[in-house]
């Protein structure tokens, strides 16, 4: 009798499993008809991943898939096309005119970024990058004055001090006969910078035993299966994530930064201390009356200083890392860049100033060329917030549709950049730039929701590169496995291989 019962239970369970599988299969097949019904060209999906190729490692990312989608649609002559990640529909833009429409001209239909936030349950995890409309506009207006060129100049000296720590560390490493772990060194430099200007804290990232900030920075981009699952649910169904009360940020990270902001705030108030940094600008806004448009809440300060930390340290260190990689592989371009730097510095009494950096136009071409091949943010995404008709078509993009752009695909497209793998800063002379559509090279995004930290990111990257090139001659260490390849596991660009540089003191 006992055996009979358990057999029945097994049959019941099997029935439920098969029925659930069938229900999911039918639902997915229904979803996969979406683009076809609309008459939009699409890439054939397969159950259950849709068009996603890379899943379930430590975390999930569709960043490199977006380039493959771009390449496939482009090779078939399409200006845009539909794909699916699991059941979720996404529109991929290929033609730069459509990219311009969505990012700038018709921005009112695409205000939100395709990034998860949960303002109700997670106010400290809701910042300028992931906040949805209508909150985004007023927050952007409040934070914009923090990034003017005047404010950049105010912070300039703090950045130079941090670059001294980096150069000291590099000199010691070279003296010891060791190669430089480029990514780690540059991430430590930018952690020190952002710790100093966003939190008013000396991070000591080059003294690894002490640097809580560097440890936090590393842990933000690594995770276990649980955080992988959290990101997975958030990227495929923000609605379910909000119902499950998931947060955008890990709890220990939020607690750590909340404490840093709280203690710094108390210290400055008590001791009447003011410093030229982002935190001070935010604290001043916090002091404004609550009804004032300028007022920011304590939670907003925490959320946005965390954001500055994430957005500020990894993007700039990635920019520098790949720029140095290309310069180390191309000694003539490295020499030309160094020669320009020395010529400009000679005009400025050997001093690195904000103005001197603006005059280094070849350096900017080098950085642009590195960002073309290695854009720190590999994909850009928007959510359609109001139904929209794609220009010259009768295709209606419905509210809620995710729209994707692949800077990596555009940057390595041979139509725009012949022999795309070749590192050639001449592609970014003013004459060459004028020949191209301005929305082909968009490493900082475009339109009202572009990168607010562009000036700061470039200033930080230029300082780092100038300091390194004026102190060392670089080549690639034999320890580095070449060529570098892009990891498909990260939202921000990372190489699968570590980059080791061999440096010779100048
Ligand atoms: C070289 C360094 C950097 C690169 C390449 C970069 C790139 C980008 C890109 C591609 C976007 C998305 C733009 C779009 O969707 O159109 C973005 C947004 C953003 N970035 Fe950066 N970024 C850099 C540095 C920084 C720094 C230093 C900060 C702050 C201190 C920062 C803060 C932000 C913020 C807050 C947003 C969201 C803006 C909004 O939604 O209104 N970024 N960045």
UniProtKB/TrEMBL annotation:
SUPFAM superfamilies to which the protein is assigned, alphabetical: Cytochrome P450
Ranges annotated as spanning the membrane: 6-28
Keyword check for Iron: yes
Protein residues bound to heme: 451
Molecular function via GO: heme binding; iron ion binding; monooxygenase activity; oxidoreductase activity, acting on paired donors, with incorporation or reduction of molecular oxygen
Keywords from the UniProt entry: Endoplasmic reticulum, Heme, Iron, Membrane, Metal-binding, Microsome, Monooxygenase, Oxidoreductase, Transmembrane, Transmembrane helix
Cell location: Endoplasmic reticulum membrane; Microsome membrane
InterPro entries: Cyt_P450, Cyt_P450_CS, Cyt_P450_E_grp-I, Cyt_P450_sf, Insect_CytP450_Detox
Membrane association type: Peripheral membrane protein
Principal location listed in the UniProt entry: endoplasmic reticulum
One Pfam family, short name: p450
One GO CC term on file: endoplasmic reticulum membrane
Cofactor needs: heme
UniProt similarity note: Belongs to the cytochrome P450 family.
PANTHER family per record: CYTOCHROME P450 (PTHR24292), CYTOCHROME P450 6A16, ISOFORM B-RELATED (PTHR24292:SF100)
Name of the protein this chain belongs to: Probable cytochrome P450 6a20 isoform X1
Organism for this UniProt entry: Sitophilus oryzae
